[in-house]
Amino acid sequence: MKKLALLLVLFSMLACSSAPITGRTQILIVPKYEVLEQSSLQYEEVKKESKILNNQDSIRVKKVGNKIAAAVESFLNSDPAYAGMADDYSWEFNLIESEDVNAWCMPGGKVAVYTGILKYAKDEDSLAVIMGHEIAHAVAEHGRERMSQELIKNYGAVTLSSVFSQNPTAATNLFSQAYGISSELVTLKYSRDHEKEADKLGVIFMAMAGYNPNTAVDFWEKMAADKETEPLEFFSTHPNSATRIQLIKEYIVSPEFSKYIR
Length: 262
Ligand SMILES: [Zn+2]
What we know:
It comes from Ilyobacter polytropus (strain ATCC 51220 / DSM 2926 / LMG 16218 / CuHBu1). By secondary structure, the chain is mainly alpha-helical. 56% of the residues lie in helices and 9% in strands. It binds zinc ion. Zinc ion (ZN) binds next to helix 4 and helix 8.
């Protein structure tokens, strides 16, 4: 009985987390190391199966990505509430040749940008909108949260302690379910709440790195105006782009935003 009580305490300690800045409650029961290991493995797979570019555009992607990542890390390191969090990231930013209007970030900071989205991001500020949003997914641990939701759905939370030891492929399966991976195609399955949160944190992070957050409004308006565009990541789970643009417009003049950006 004592053992059970201890397990329950441990479980609730593990389960009760909150997303940085927004404070949204999250259930994060899949161990961090399982998530990071899967992310590294899958990212290497994608790199092997894709055409990774090494040109002026990829230099720009890396430059903007690294600049925002550095700003985010110094923010995390400056606040005791986020102590040690920055250590979980080993950032990588790669440009993949593909017509898809897409970009994504796996846990631990493994980012991919597809050339198809660059027509909407010709300057560094608009590229920073994409990178800020993707980096936000990693910092708010949306991948780990998705995997935890899949874990509860598949196994039930009570069996947590035995899932990973008794089933060596559990972590791989959860990661594939959360990320919808089949060969080189990565279709993220974030919720609407995750997308909204990534939009909010994304504009904060780009501004922390010195980019103009107002560009986010222009960027999404440009995307929305192009009817042929159906970005795999950005619009699949959103109600509509007007709602998203409105949310960003309101957020960049909100007290929460100005608390972080002076
Ligand atoms: Zn997103």
